[in-house]
Specification:
Elements lengths: L2 H22 L4 H18 L3 H11 L3 E4 L3 E4 L2 H8 L9 E2 L2 E2 L17 H14 L7 H18 L1 E3 H18 L5 H12 L8 H7 L1 H18 L5 H9 L5 H33 L1 H15 L7 H5 L2 H13 L5 E5 L4 E5 L2 E5 L4 E5 H4 L36 H18 E2 L2 E2 L18 E3 L2 E2 L2
Parallel strand pairs: 2-9
Antiparallel strand pairs: 1-2, 3-4, 5-12, 6-9, 7-8, 10-13, 11-12
Helix pairs in contact: 1-2, 1-3, 5-11, 5-12, 6-7, 6-17, 7-8, 7-12, 8-10, 8-12, 9-10, 10-12, 12-15, 12-17, 13-15, 13-17
């Protein structure tokens, strides 16, 4: 069966399910069971053809349609922006389109995106306390980035998919907790990030049938959280969380996810895409090199001046985030029942239905961006949907640090390092992994004399 036929037939099944759920209820035992069946059937197709899946339904059904577990997917810029800015928001324990069905993998603590009310406010307060202003830690940040790049130079190559996540894990643990991880701990943390999709399987599968694979990862998570409690910053973090009635377990696990899922997976993916853009687009790279040379002129140390004045580099980062958003979906729960129109047919959805915004399609919406598939750093980035837009409760609290880290990498990479060749930068738009050129390798990678 052709992909288009398969995707559209599956949507017809979703439409029929909508009528059934209107009768039996979204959260009844039979309703949950039916949604779970559809979730796995759709996921089997979407996880391997996610971009085509979205556009087939968008082009043939409309800008809103059912997907995965009877979720309503929004694809236009205006609708995704509106969804992001809805306040207050009710969240489920979801990671974009992925439902977290195995709490054991997260030590029975919800993702920060799955918290609501005071818990959610407490998580955001924790992040504000934990995440430093990049301008205030610029010199340390420069040292950490340079040290990691120097280690890659010793190997003679910089591998985007393998090296960048490990670098971010080291850097973020130093910045947030002032601790240095061993290489074994770094590898284990990277394994947690790589295997997060396992948490979408039923809990008994993850906890028992896959224990040979998940038990070491879960043990590592427990181990690191105990290390966090020995950090010189733990007392301040504990005090902040306690104001919102968060206990040590919640605080440690929430910060673990902040570093590993948002910080490492998100920032390393965007950093990899920025490096991919710089290898592909010679004109952009030359403009950035010119800015870098100006910034470093007569400077002996990297400092906040470097970050403040890397304005062109920041535009490259923002445009890369638009074209290759590391977070492609945002999710919340409907607070009341409603309906969507599918080919002139009104289809009901229930209270508690997931409402998902497709950031990828929104960022390439022709109603918002002229020539949306072209790389253009002269665009208006004032309402960029990456990092969840701005001016509301859902804005990513790590936005400035994420941009600061990527700027620091770009400045050091182009000023202090060189490579003789690189493999081709290719973005994978089929498999649901982070949209980044994971197979890109900077070869004969060395420090400049």
């Amino acid at each position: 069966m052709q992909l288009q036929e398969k995707v559209l037939k599956a949507h017809d099944r979703q439409v029929r399910l909508a009528s059934i759920l209107a009768k039996v209820g979204n959260t009844s035992p039979i309703g949950r069971f039916l949604r779970l069946i559809v979730y796995y059937l759709e996921a089997a197709v979407m996880l391997r053809n996610w971009r085509n899946f979205l556009y087939i339904r968008k082009d043939n059904i409309g800008e809103k349609f059912f997907a995965v577990d009877q979720a309503v997917i929004h694809t236009s810029f205006s609708e995704v922006k509106k969804l992001m800015q809805t306040q207050p928001q009710l969240r489920g324990n979801d990671l974009g389109i992925i439902r977290i069905l195995a709490p054991s993998y997260l030590l029975n603590n919800p993702l920060s995106l799955g918290m609501n009310g005071q818990e959610h406010q407490g998580a955001r307060a924790l992040f504000s306390e934990a995440l430093p202003d990049p301008l205030e830690v610029s010199e340390l940040l420069g040292e950490l980035v340079n040290q990691n790049l120097a280690d890659a130079a010793k190997k003679g190559e910089l591998h985007i998919g393998n090296d960048l996540p490990e670098m971010l894990i080291r850097i973020l643990h130093r910045l947030v907790f002032e601790i240095t991880l061993t290489e074994e701990e770094v590898k284990a943390s990277k394994g947690f990030v790589n295997d997060i999709a396992i948490a979408s399987l039923p809990n008994f599968v993850v906890k028992y049938l896959l224990a040979f694979r998940t038990a070491p990862t879960i043990k590592h998570r427990q181990h690191l959280i105990e290390r966090y409690k020995q950090s010189p910053r733990w007392a301040a973090l504990l005090e902040t969380g306690s104001k919102y009635q968060l206990n040590e377990h919640q605080i440690g696990n929430t910060l673990f996810d902040m570093i590993h899922i948002a910080g490492t997976a998100g920032t390393s993916a965007l950093l990899g895409s920025v490096i991919g853009v710089l290898t592909l687009k010679e004109d952009i790279r030359n403009h950035v090199i010119s800015e870098v040379n100006t910034i470093w002129n007569n400077q002996e140390t990297f400092n906040k001046y470097s970050l403040e004045n890397a304005t062109l580099t920041e535009k490259v980062i923002l445009e890369t985030a638009r074209l290759y958003p590391p977070v492609r979906f945002v999710s919340q729960l409907a607070t009341q029942a409603g309906e969507i129109t599918v080919k002139e047919t009104k289809c009901p959805f229930q209270k508690g239905t997931r409402l998902i915004g497709s950031v990828f399609t929104a960022n390439r919406d022709t109603n918002r961006y002229e020539n949306p598939d072209s790389f253009d750093i002269t665009r208006d980035f004032s309402d960029n949907l990456s990092w969840n837009s701005h001016g509301h409760e859902r804005i990513c609290p790590g936005r400035s640090l994420s941009i600061g880290i990527i700027k620091t990498f770009c400045l050091h990479l182009l000023q202090k390092y060189q490579w003789q060749s690189s493999t081709e930068a290719k973005w994978d738009f089929d498999n649901v992994t982070a949209v980044t050129p994971n197979d890109l390798v900077l070869q004969e990678f060395t420090q400049k004399p």
